[in-house]
Design brief:
- Pathway: Amino-acid biosynthesis; L-histidine biosynthesis; L-histidine from 5-phospho-alpha-D-ribose 1-diphosphate: step 2/9; Amino-acid biosynthesis; L-histidine biosynthesis; L-histidine from 5-phospho-alpha-D-ribose 1-diphosphate: step 3/9.
- Residues 1-114 are annotated as: Phosphoribosyl-AMP cyclohydrolase.
- It is found in: Cytoplasm.
- With 206 residues, the protein is of the alpha+beta class.
- The protein folds into two domains: 4-92, Ubiquitin-like (UB roll), CATH 3.10.20.810; 111-205, MazG-like (Helix Hairpins).
- The chain is 45% helix and 18% strand.
- The chain is built from seven helices and six strands; from the N terminus they run H-E-E-H-E-E-E-E-H-H-H-H-H.
- The protein has helices at residues 4-8, 39-48, 111-124, 134-141, 143-162, 166-186, 191-205; strands at residues 19-25, 31-37, 52-55, 60-63, 72-79, 86-92.
- Strand 1 and strand 2 form a beta hairpin.
- Helix 5 runs antiparallel to helix 6 (166-186).
- The radius of gyration is 22 Å and the shape is elongated.
- The model has no long low-confidence stretch (mean pLDDT 93).
Length: 206
Amino acid sequence: MLVEQQWQQLDWQKSNGILPVIVQHAVSGEVLMLGYMNYKALQVTVQSCQVTFFSRSKRRLWTKGESSGYVLRVVSIHPDCDKDTLLILAEPKGPTCHTGNSSCFSPATSDWVFLYSLEALISSRKDANPHNSYTASLYASGTKRIAQKVGEEGIETALAATVQDKFELLNEAADLLYHLLVLLQDQELNLSQVIAQLRIREKSNS
């Protein structure tokens, strides 16, 4: 998080004391919205850990989600190289856009955002009716069955590669990834934690 000394080093004069602020989902990387901050808005944002902007039309501070409750919890704040723009990584407590979309830039969805959304959907199936959802039926069958499915899909993926059937390899890889996500959710784990382990390995090997 920025400290007050870093706030003062930002180029507040370039745009008459107001900086553009890009808000990005801290986990999925989805760009959520663009807003503006003056010095006071940044101060409130840092102190409250909730994204607070300066309204250029109403000339007042406003906290994102102050009416809807869908606040943006600040994870980290990063100035750009010219110190005249901020990037805020945040965890949204609901849809960011007033239209109900997750982002004000929807439907601009990256592959990682799709995976994050898929993971959230898979997690939501834990309490669904097993008769109406294949994912829910996997949860109902228990950890051993889910793990068995991951093993089966892993073997089928390897076999598709062995016979050099690229189309089938893609299909089997998709099945493998899906069942792996189910297994992770079953164990109260997620893809971000897997990536964190990969980052640790990257650092240890560099």
